[in-house]
Amino acid sequence: MRRIGGRDFDFDRQVVVMAVVNRTPDSFYDHGATFALDRAVQSALRAAELGAEWVDIGGVPFGRGPAVSTEEEIERVVPVVEAITRAQSDLVISVDTNDPEVARRAVQAGAAVINDTSGLADPRMAEVVAESGAHVVITHSVGPPRAEKPAARYGDVVAEVGSFLRDRIARAEDAGIPRERIIIDPGHDLDKNTVHSLEITRRLEEIAAIGPPLLVAVSNKDFIGESIDRPQGERLAGSLAAMTACVLKGARIVRMHDVADAVDAARMIEAILGMRPPVRLEHNTHPTHNV
Length: 291
Description:
Blueprint: E1 2-4, E2 7-9, E3 16-22, H1 37-49, E4 54-58, H2 70-87, E5 92-96, H3 100-109, E6 113-116, H4 123-132, E7 135-139, H5 157-174, E8 182-185, H6 194-202, H7 204-208, E9 215-216, H8 222-228, H9 236-248, E10 253-256, H10 259-272
Helix pairs in contact: 1-2, 2-3, 3-4, 6-8, 9-10
């Protein structure tokens, strides 16, 4: 059992759906549909109504693009966190940032988790999280977000991702973050090509074996689009298939854009794996009466 924000989670018997709210004008998925403050807040609260237990707020996309100052990122994410905190006390709020000052301000506003896609590249981030009492998601990536990078190359991508995550877990613990406040993410598509992301998915149990709860962010990623030849907007089935494969391999937190479909899929996986009973039991349960 883990207490995160205002909720308790049993990752042995539960698949948690994390909704995504991008308060950015250049999101790869929604192209700025939730950039306006009211739209961002409405999207988060609607996700809770649809069954998401968690919402991830981002103010800067990971991919290439113009730099966003610390002050601008704070202005994008902190008001959303404050509004959700006022309106929905038990929805876990994480903030997707690699900036320690943004993290500090977000936790002060009510965020319970810092989702650092740089994997604690800035040592100050571990210090901020340790002092704040928040959980942290340590994600594998290579080099700074928003920067042009060379083509991805790995010898054994799963082994290299695993080594990176173990190293950054040690960095977090050395800074004072207890292991029970650490979550890991292999970083599908982050500085990886489609073959790499597929290999990570295929061998995900090796990442799960590291120990902390495993989060995956596969929704609408390019490795899905390239695998099934579907553009953005037509990747729901592929996203749910990838999500399901990851859960069967040990993932317990799934970061998804299409919340209602993801929640249904997660509840079905839980039932199949015996994590919970069906909501109702009626089919073929009544005796046959012969006339």
